[in-house]
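Aim 2 progress update. The chain analyzed this quarter is reproduced below.
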Amino acid sequence: MSALRVGVIGIGAFGSRVALRLLWTDFPTLQIYDVADQIPRYFTGDYGGLNISSPKMMAQSCDVIITVLPSAAELREVCFGWEGLATGFKAGGIVVDLGVTDPLETVALAKQLETHGVKLVDAPAFGTPQDAQDGKLTLIVGGDEAALARCGPIFEKLAGKVLRAGATGSAQAAGAIADTLRAVRLLAAGEAIRLGAHFGFEAGNLLNVCDALGGADIPEILLREVATRRFKTGQSLGILNANVELAAQLAASAGIVSPLMAATRDALVKAEARLGYGADQSAIIKWLEGLTAAPTEEAGAQDNSQEKSADPASSA
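Predicted structure tokens:
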């Protein structure tokens, strides 16, 4: 049995299975709270656990509170609304958010909770309610190292896989970033298949050929060369740029619109101009790191106004 005193807030279809999993393993004194007060009564009557009447009261007697809520707005209400848990915890209390919510709001909440001596761990859970009950969730976790270590016994019971992100908020951002990468890969493959079909390639055969010519090792290259910043794949950025330019010409001659290819060609031209023909292809991230956001219209208007006021001719 774990020495951690744990509570769960949010006993819906998913949260109830999280609570069941914890109750049936190392947390038989699990505390339960839900804004719909009849739900915890039914749950504790059927399965056990302690029905608590407010988030603050739960925090007063728990080391870790797990929230399973649909949005960051509900999480904020639980933390700082009526009988909010932020004022109940002793210093060192931990909130673990299993919901998939807004990364920016997660960071803001973490900073506010920190002023009360409370750590926020974002741990968005991926899987089904049955996975939660079976302890087979995938959790992406972000936050303070000591807080994550303390929550280890909880993660072990809930998850078949725990993936470490970074600081609080990074785990929430991971889902959106991963889906963006997935979308780019799907769009790129779609454009390749469409162009290949024009030249008589069967889709499956085209993808196999692309993998054989180096497409399959992209994940390895990213880990080995980009993440480590070695940048030693052996292929120059200039050659990659030339081949993408050739593919763009093929698409244009066939009358095939390929927006991702066009954007890639534009990016590679600019990257080569900045880094040089002989730069390693994997070093393109160095070009990306040098980009800055364009000024907003409001900021631009202010800059123009300042320039005019500083120009002697403008007052003539």
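The domain at 6-168 is CATH 3.40.50.720 (Rossmann fold). The beta strands are 6-9, 31-33, 50-51, 64-67, 94-97, 119-122, 125-126, 137-141, 159-164. These observations will guide the mutagenesis experiments scheduled for the next reporting period.
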